[in-house]
Each structure stands twice: as C-alpha cells, then as structure tokens.
Prior knowledge:
Layout: E1 2-8, H1 16-29, E2 37-42, E3 46-52, E4 66-67, E5 73-81, H2 84-93, H3 103-114, E6 124-132, E7 137-142, E8 151-155, E9 158-162, H4 180-189, E10 202-204, E11 209-213, E12 218-222, H5 236-253, E13 261-264, H6 269-279, E14 287-293, H7 301-310, E15 314-320, H8 324-332, H9 344-355, E16 360-362, H10 367-371, H11 375-387, H12 392-406, H13 412-424, H14 428-436, H15 441-447, H16 450-456, H17 462-471, H18 477-487, H19 489-503, E17 508-510, H20 516-524, H21 538-543, H22 550-553, H23 564-569, H24 573-580, H25 593-604, H26 611-629
Parallel strand pairs: 13-14, 13-16, 14-15, 16-17
Antiparallel strand pairs: 1-3, 1-9, 2-3, 4-5, 5-6, 6-7, 7-11, 8-9, 8-10, 11-12
Helix pairs in contact: 2-3, 5-20, 9-19, 11-14, 12-13, 14-17, 17-18, 18-19
Amino acid sequence: MCGLAGFLRTASTPDRDAHQRWLENMGQAIIHRGPDAGSTWLDEAVGLVHRRLSILDLSNAGTQPMVSASERYVIAYNGEIYNFQELRDDLISQGLSFRTRTDTEVLLALYEIHGPECLQRLNGMFALAIWDRTARKLFLARDRLGKKPLYFYEANGQFAFASELKALTPAPFVKTELRHDAVKDFFFYQYVPDPKTIYKNVHKLAPGHWLMTDGTHTYQEQYWDVSFGSPSSASLDELEDGLYNLIDDAVRLRMVSDVPLGAFLSGGIDSSAVVGLMAGHTRKPVTTCAIGFDSKRFDEVHWAKKVAEQFNTDHHEFTVKNNVADSLGSIARFFDEPFADPSFVPTYFVSQLARQEVTVALAGDGGDENFAGYSKYYTDQVENRLRGMFPPALRHNLFPGLARLAGLVNTGPTRKAKSLLGTLALEPDEAFFITNSFFRRDVWNDLVKGELKRETHDYDPADITRAHYQNADTDDHLSRILYTDIKTYLPGDILVKVDRMSMANSLETRAPLLDYRVVEYAAQIPAALKLHGKEKKYVLKKAFERMLPQDILYRKKMGFSVPLAQWLRRELKPTVEQLLLSPNSGVANFFESAGIRNLWQKHLAGDDQFTQELWSLLVFELWWQQYQVNA
Length: 631
C-alpha cells in the first residue's frame, strides 16, 4: 500500500526548485502510507511523488514513480492488482518482457496497449495517476468500489491530486475554503459523501471512475457500476456453492504477498469465513487480531477466540480500556475532513495490533452491504411494508400530525411512535435517508446559526440518498437500498475508516468480500435470500454452514460497536467540556452554544438520545482544531 500526490506545472509557476520542495512536502504529509521508500518525478509539465509500502518485489526495482519501457508513460500508483500475475503472463505471451515482478509495471504495460479500457481487466484496489509525456495529459483512476482514496483540486487553471487531503495543501495554490453543504452532509451522514469534500474546489474522484486532464480541459467517465436488475433463477444450493467458491478464490488471490500476512477477526460470520478460508490456503497458522472492550455489552473477543481455536490461528487480542481520551485527538487527525463513525477507534487499535505482527491483513468488510447484514435493513423492510398498507394521501396528510402529537410526551414508547409515524409519512428513499441519519433535523434546526444556516437553508442532504436510490436498475426496495449503501455508506464511511486507520499504522488491508466478482454475484442473488424473514445474510450463512458452527453463524453480531454514551460521560467528559463547550470553539461559529450545553447536560443526566449528535460535534471540533485553527 502506498501514497501518491502531484500537480500540473503551469507557465505562471516555473520555479523548479520550489516545485521540488512542494513534491517532497506532499510526500512527507503521507509518509505513514509508505514508510519504506519515497521518490519524485518532475519534468516541464508535471510533478509526481510516491511513498511506498513494499508488499511485492521488495527490491528497489519496484520504486515509483515508474517509467514505462517506451518512456512515454510515468505512473504513481497505490493499491494491489490481485490478478496481475495472470495479466503479466498474458502480456509475456504477446511478446512483452518485464524488468520487475511488480503489478505496477504490468499496469503501465496494460495502459500503453489499452488506455482507460485496461481498467476493465483489473481485479484489485487502486488509485493511480499516469502521465502521458507525449500527449501531455494526466490520467487518474479509482477502483470499482472505492477502496483506495483519490482527491483532486481544480481551480483558477491549477490542478493537483493526492491520496489524502493533507498531501494537497503543501502546494500553495491549493485553497481550503469550507464548503457549507458538505458540513451539513457530514452531520447527517457522519462523513462527507463522494464526490464532495469539506472544501470548495477539492473533490474525491468517485469509485469506478476515471479522469483525464491537460490542465485546461478535464473529462470524467464512469467505467463500472453494479447491477441488481437481473436476479438469478438458480436454486439456493447452486447459489450457495457458487458464492462459497467465489469467495474462496477471492481469499486465495489476496494471500499473495512477499511480507507477513494475517487477518482481522471479530468472531462474526464475515471475518470468520475469511479466516477459515485463509487457513485452507496455507500450511502455517494464520495470524489473527481481535479487539475487545472493557464492557461486557460490547465485548466480542470470546467469539473471536472460539474461531481462532477452531482454525488453530496465531491469535492476538487488545482491550480498549482507558485508551480513548488520550488517543482520540491523535487518531482523529488521520482524517483530513470530519469523520464521526465511532468504530474508527477500535479499527485504529486493531490495525496497530496487527502491524506488530504483519504488514498485510485480510478483513471481512463488505459482507453487510452485499448480503443485507445490518439491522437497519430489517427495520426498513418492516416500515416499507407498513407504508404500503396505507394510501399515500393518508400517510402524507395525517401521519405527520400524529407524529407531532406523539412527540409531546417524552417517553421511550412515544419517541418510537413519533419516529415510526414520521417515517411512514415519507416515501421509501426519504425514509431510508432518515434511517441512515445521525443528526436529527429538529436538533439541527435548533442548533444551527449564522452563515452555515443561511447557506444551507434550502439544501437537503437527503438528495444524495434519493439520487442513488432512484438510479438503481431495479424496482425491488431492498436491492435499491443495498445499491444506495454501496454507493454512499460503503465508500464514504466503511472504506475511509479502514483505509485511514490501517494506513496510520502502515498496514495494508484487503477485503475479499469486496472483490468486484463477489459484489456482482451478490447483486444477482434475489433479495429474499439475503434478508430471509428476520434472518440477515441468509444465503451467506447457508453457504458457510459447511465451515462454521451454528453459534457463530446465527448469533447477533455487533461488529466494531463501541460504548459511546459511556465514553462521553466518563473517559471523554473532560475532553468534551474543554473543547466543545468552550466559547472559542470551532462549533461555536456554526451552532448555538447554549443549545449544545443543554444537550450535554441532558446526556450527563442519563438521557442517551443525543449521544450521536454530541459525538459528531466533538469530532467536528477535533477536526477544526487540527485543520482550521492550526492550518
């Protein structure tokens, strides 16, 4: 795994020495992504910098930026192409020869022959930049699911790109002006969805897209999308066998490494299946790592230990006790824009633990989005069936008033009644947005103020969810929301979290369940075989009954859930009161301080309903202190 950055040189900034310093500083900003080596390329039109975490061909021959055999193309690349050996053999049969054993050189050769069409041949995770010295054009591309990040800045005739936002800012022409609609997006989603960033004129290249620019004209194209429009008619047994064999092959491909390799293990079906398949592809014990909490409600290490014993792994554990307050600020700084999924904390610690043993770790990410593993999918399914029992006019006209009446009494049952009635009054896509929201609209309206309020008054973050929901090529509701999460929550939250926290520890992570072949296969499985009554991930569980015990397959899984309300009242209480309640805080520029203090007092009194809003405000403040105050 690696990091890359660069910029197009313009006639208005001809100072070569200054540009070399920019490149070196850009690379230094992401040295954690590639501590093993760093190099630059600077010619009259472009500057490229690369930081390398050596995984394949550990020799200096793999150093980037790498120049093609024809010397026409120069590449800086982050990722792994799992089928590169097959592609390499095919190219050799066509008469090509190679100087290294790297997938980087294979990528260069493929691009020289096929141009952007080469992306269709790749099975892997990647973000890449290729400079065409003859045509003087820059090509950027990002993998199908968005496992690897790629940002670009474009304004006033200037263009720059990088693996992380922090690697853009050493270029002095990159301006970091806050984007207010993205701020609102963050508070409702917990992250800033693609292709926006927290800054104006800085964008994420969307998953499954490529970009071409000469500095004057920029063109983007989508080269991949997942289709739910052709559900399979195969039997359950056939689907189970096909799924098992495909995931097994995805695991096999991801075990190619010239450095030590292991796995994250939570004891749930996704990571347990990955570990079990890994054990079948190696004679040595698989190295596994698990994270526990000093809270029985959230601790799952005993389940991980059971799986570790079944497959005789070399197992390691770490318990998050009083580590949170001391570590939160330093961990959060690895996110260059606000990010509030609290599971980033255990993800950081499990990555730190894994890095002590291995350089590459396989993980179970993607199982929930592919096979309907989240509880919210069942809740949404039930609500949507109820919605269908009432005429739209009745729902739209009567239910909002009933919801307001229920809200007049603040008890657990009436809050649930208010939520349900309010959700049933909405259309399915809007209701799914509410399900995915982590900052309620009434709380937002009570708190927001000033320029942020004026700038975003007519902006609705739900538009992002609606657009993806409507873009799915199916009428099946569950399939539509799975598609929506694959386009939003997966790349914007899950994959950002794993990438930043693993890279913070110079650890490469690989996700077999996000092999694009698995994603495409899962999309063809009828929705009723994913969410089967109340049983989530039904077809995946059936497929792995041949390997995993029933109590692992059919237990309630928490994933990396954290005791957030407890953290805020205990370990993080001084942090909240020092940062969030300060009159000089960043959030005080955007939200009513008295309102925040009121929420905090309610939380301290035992009312947990504002936990997520308070956490989001705290994370935003941590980001503000790091990247706005200290910018």
